[in-house]
Amino acid sequence: MMLDCPHCYRKVLPRTTGECPICHKDTNETRGTDPSKTRICLTEKSVLPDVCVSCGAFANRRVTVTARGLNTGANDVGGSKGASRIPGLIGLIISLCTSQGRPGKAAMKILLPQCDQCNGVLKLEPDLVDFERYESWFIVHRNFAQSLKQ
């Protein structure tokens, strides 16, 4: 059965021993974990509520989180622009020329809400960045995640 690991917050299928295949901690052991946190995916275009990502309180400020890395263009070969229906080298060339995620350097910037009390105390950084899909995964307060879904 899939569950959220209480240590790394990823959705996993634990081993028969209860071990998380990602962080290798026991998913049955919750001592020292923070049940108020969860893991969510955001993009630069995500519409974010005025709820602090760190503590779940009202947030009247935005903090810029920037991630830089490399985009290999792997997800764009035969990508969503219809080039997958064109075979061979021509399809590859069309896909690379028309895709947003061309191979090379990539950067993402997301403005996350954070309250005055958490700002400067708790650093915001992504848990994982996917430059192929332009998505960032963050560990956030559950109140923020729930407000995002509404």
Can you describe this structure?
With 150 residues, the chain is an alpha+beta fold. The protein is built from 2 helices and 7 strands. It has a 3-stranded antiparallel β-sheet. A hairpin with a 4-residue loop joins strand 6 and strand 7. The radius of gyration is 19 Å and the shape is globular.
Quaternary structure state of the chains depicted: single chain
Determine the structural class based on helices, strands and strand pairing.
Answer: alpha+beta
How many separate helices?
Answer: 2
Radius of gyration: 19 Å
Low-confidence stretches: 75-86
Average of pLDDT: 83
Query: Which percent range fits the helix content?
Result: 10-25%
- Give the helices and strands as they follow along the chain: EEEEHEEEH
Overall body shape: globular
Q: Please report the distance between the alpha carbons of the first and last residues.
A: 27 Å
Count the beta strands: 7
Percentage of residues in DSSP E strands: 25-35%
Largest sheet: 3 strands, antiparallel
Instruction: Please give the order of strands in the largest beta sheet.
Output: 3-7-6
List the helices and strands and how they pair.
Elements: E1 3-4, E2 11-12, E3 37-42, E4 62-71, H1 88-98, E5 104-113, E6 128-130, E7 135-141, H2 142-149
Antiparallel strand pairs: 1-2, 3-7, 4-5, 6-7
